[in-house]
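User: I'm writing a tutorial on reading structure tokens. Could you give me a worked example: one chain, its sequence, then its tokens, then a sentence or two explaining what the tokens reveal?
Assistant: Sure. Here is the example chain.
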Amino acid sequence: MSPLAQHVDRRRNRAWWGFIFQMVRDKKRVMGLLNEGDLYWLLRARASEASLTGLNVYAGDGASNPRLLAARERYLALDVKISPADDHVPYLKALLSIKVQDATAEVVAWLCYLMKRDIYCPSSLLGVLWECVLDTNNLLSDDLKEKILGLISQRLTLPTDFSEDARNRFASLLPEPEVYDPEKHPSFCLAASDLAHEVVRILFPRVTPSLSGTPSQLAIQEWAHSETQRMFSPSARLEYRWHNLVCLALATTRSPTYTQAMVPTLLRAIRSPRLSAVNFKFVAVLALVERITTSHGSSTDLHNSVRDLWTSWADIANNDSHAHRALVRPILGTFFRLAALTRDLSLVRSCVRLASVGFWQFDLGDDVARRQAQLLAVEYLAAAAVSGDSLWERIVIELPPHITFPQWHSMLLSKTILRLVRLDAQRAVDVYHLWRRYLPLPDLSASLGPMLVQEGCADLAIPMLSDINFTGPSLGAVLRPLAKQGSWYIDLELAAIIAKALHAISVSEAPPQTTPARRYMAWALLALVCSAQARAAVAVFKNVYTRDPGFFNGRVLRTFLSMLLRHRQFRGAAEIAKLSPRLRWRHFVLVGLARRGSTPRVEAQLGGPLLPKWLVDVVARTRLGRRHPAAGLLRRWATRRARTPADSRNGMKVLVRARGVGLAKRAYRTARTVHNAGEQTALGNIILDGQVTHAQSRGPRYLRSALRTLRLLVEEHGFVPDRVTTNIVVKAALRSHTVLDVVLVRRLFDYFAWSGYGGGVSFGSSEAAMREAAAVLGTCTPVTKSRLSFARHVKPLYKMFIKALFLRKDVAGARRVVGVLKEAERMEFERIARRRKSRTRIRV
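And here are its predicted structure tokens:
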């Protein structure tokens, strides 16, 4: 396609570009796969159809980028001219992740097109813009910066410089919902970062900008509008405008590039006597310092920077009589929070002295200003309390009388305690109990308890959680942070509270249908099982299942049953298994009961038809999502129902795996009386192999344990060893490097070859040396009088020697045994062929 596309590129005709797009789409439909070149020309065609000028599509550097290719393929069904800006964000982020100048230039071109096409800018696209502005790899040239500042300049005169279609689309957007609480309004400001966001609302509005509202809101809007005009005036220098844009991005973005080293550099930029108390650069620096302090914690250098920042701003604020109180209060609130984070009581007192100059005042009827002053008082009270001054009479005396109205005491105290929780949970609880003794502080258990759990202080929250009448959402606020911690083992008293609340809610309310709520509910049930509240967990599960059988999926049900069985809650597991109409869960519980030694009374609760006479029936009928360890042993047996010797052997194998060797020995004591000698030997070999296979240690004690089991079977139960027994003992001996080194392994192999297994004495060992090596196996020597089978005796034995020699780094010896085994296989095949040939002649 590339030659044709290059020809179209020279023609630069939109109709030809449409033809290229159709070819790419047809190739995708026929072949199902597009390469990097196809997707490149697809983007070129789409951009040409939309008349997107100045866009140079990134051609790549030769290395395939799966994220970029996947994002470009979405443009097969994406019309650039009418698609929302959110649809382009994945592609723009994929370009930025490449960190190449050409890719960044394409991102800037897309941003200019999208932000000039529509007035409304979604938050995802605005995040891409800030990521470009906060470029740490120096990929933005002056031309690219000029393009970005050009689209900012276009927004200084909203909505004049936009097309009629853009204005109509902007006017058709749904209005912002009405908010009656001033604190919840998007334009409410109580921090420096809120002032910075107000500037962003002027440049990238959600609704048509209008100067309306209370006097304090009008003052904030007028300040934001004048600051945007001043900072991004087209007549200003490029460096000045770009520096202001970087400050705006830093103040409004949670960027990982925040470092404490940035603070001194920004402080030098704002030290000018001509600055006003509400200069945007100072607002941006203050917002950045607060964000760094919140995320990285306080340090000596950062504390000194905060003190320098306060000293500089306090001098300016004392001499600035034109700064509106509604603009100064957010800055004072930020300093109160910084003082609380740094535990600086002297800074708290300096801030409250400056606030007493007149910044507590507000106009009557201005609800926004009144709420600003109230919350500023809350910030002061919280900062004083967390800094060590918790005596109410001493800290409230700094506030003016109109802020400390008796009617406002309850609100101020409640919000102060809840603010303290975010700063210091232990301090908040102490102050809460102290103030409740003599102040009209309402009961905050319903709000304070969940907040303490969210802060990781569940031990402090337990006395308060016990007094809460939980609903579904309030309990979800407690379960969410606990589930995110990941541990199922919680405090026993907390588990009792959650169990009581969950049971009450499961009876009175319908189960929540959101995916996170289902996940938290599943975690809570598992945590209750692990924290001595298994019966309550079973009751809650049954209530939820009765209301909505599909609430828990199969994975949750399997995990819940496994947890019940692990904690030996067999009766509860049986009750849960009986709820489902599918037999697989009853089989699952039966296997767990058998492996953990449950009583027949619990097994009987699962129903008569499912109760097996043999343990092997349980495993044979099991249909689990994952393979059972003993299922492979029963693949052929499960198709038969007759009781044969094969059933006994397979049942013994499952018994060894599920219940251990000890129980299998007791079963062998009774089973050998009903079987002949050959079957007794087969059952004994199964027990001995289980002892060898599932042993924990592989040292000398490992072999002695196997020989002890063999001796017990021979002396007490009349067990008769055969060549399979010999192979099992040899396997136990070869697994231990300390019992048999390389020399003894070679001698032992020669001993078996000399005893009739075939192959000759390959390593040239003497008879005395071979008998000395065989003495390691104890009394279990090869049975020379029994019939020798190549498939059952010789081949497994030689394979064990090959593996043992390889593990002991004797490659030459292992290869020699491989040669002996291949020769023995050849001779066995010839013998079988001769036998078949002779049988054919007899039939003829």
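What the tokens reveal: Confidence is low (pLDDT under 50) at residues 608-628, 630-642. The radius of gyration is 40 Å.
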